[in-house]
Write a structure and sequence with these properties.
Strand content of chain B: 35-45%
Distance between the termini of chain B: 35 Å
Number of strands of chain B: 9
Shape of chain B: globular
Number of strands of chain A: 11
Largest sheet of chain B: 6 strands, mixed
Order of helices and strands of chain B: EEEEEEEEE
Helix content of chain B: under 10%
Radius of gyration of chain B: 13 Å
Oligomer: heterodimer
Largest interface: A-B, 28 and 28 residues
């Protein structure tokens, strides 16, 4: 059974960098069968896809966030991470990490079959 | 890349069927049969209920069914049950290795 758990600060100051880590247990994070992704949900709003990373380190980002986002993978720790720079109040959200399955053999086309519980990050001074 | 459009809320009585729509455009839903649906209860992790428009993961009830026509994907729940009450949101591949989500729909079982 795959399990994912987000961790990181729940409060970040405006203009600073949001940093979260997702710890994966169960199937190997180094498997070539999966992508590993970040999705967020602002309070009272819909989900927003942030980006995904493959075990090789290849990354694919939401174009609207691409200039501020970095997703990295550390297989030795069974973790992948999210960094979002220059945050504003609009980045306040519950952040989820999830396991993605490749769909139709198209690079970057995924559906998410396991999710973490999510972690609320508030951007405020 | 605009969010997919879902109704804010739908409702139905136990035993009835409901359908939740997810409307995109010719760059996402209309171009790919790569729509997934998720069920989310308050404070819980989302649960995958449909992927690749029509496929059901192992363990998901066959009361959940997906379909697509042109730029609109749909999730139908047959034989509505009380524990189906949750938020549902869709997601589509949008080309260039990107994904787009819908705004979510709150399902109320009357």
């Amino acid at each position: 059974q795959q399990q994912l758990q987000e961790s990181g600060p729940g409060l970040v100051k405006p203009s600073e960098t949001l940093s979260l880590t997702c710890t994966v247990s169960g199937d190997s994070i180094s498997s070539n069968s999966y992508y590993w992704g970040w999705i967020r949900q602002p309070p009272g709003k819909g989900m927003e896809w942030i980006g995904i990373i493959y075990y090789s380190g290849s990354t694919y980002y939401n174009p609207s966030l691409k200039s501020r986002v970095t997703i990295l993978i550390d297989a030795s720790q069974s973790q992948f991470s999210l960094k979002l720079s220059s945050v504003t109040a609009a980045d306040t959200a519950v952040y989820y990490c999830a396991r993605g399955r490749l769909s139709a053999g198209i690079v970057g086309a995924t559906f998410f079959d396991y999710w973490g519980q999510g972690t609320l990050v508030i951007v405020s001074s | 890349q605009s969010a997919l459009t879902q109704p804010a809320s739908v409702s139905g009585s136990p035993g009835q069927s409901i359908t939740i729509s997810c409307t995109g455009n010719s760059s996402d839903v209309g171009s790919y049969s790569l729509v997934s649906w998720y069920q989310q209860n308050p404070g819980k992790a989302p649960k995958l209920v449909i992927y690749d428009v029509i496929k059901r993961p192992s363990g998901v009830s066959n009361r959940f069914s997906g379909s697509k026509s042109d730029n609109t994907a749909s999730l139908t729940i047959f034989g509505l049950q009380a524990d189906d009450e949750a938020d549902y949101f869709c997601c589509s591949y949008a080309g260039s290795s990107t994904l787009v989500f819908g705004g979510g729909t709150k399902l109320t079982v009357l």
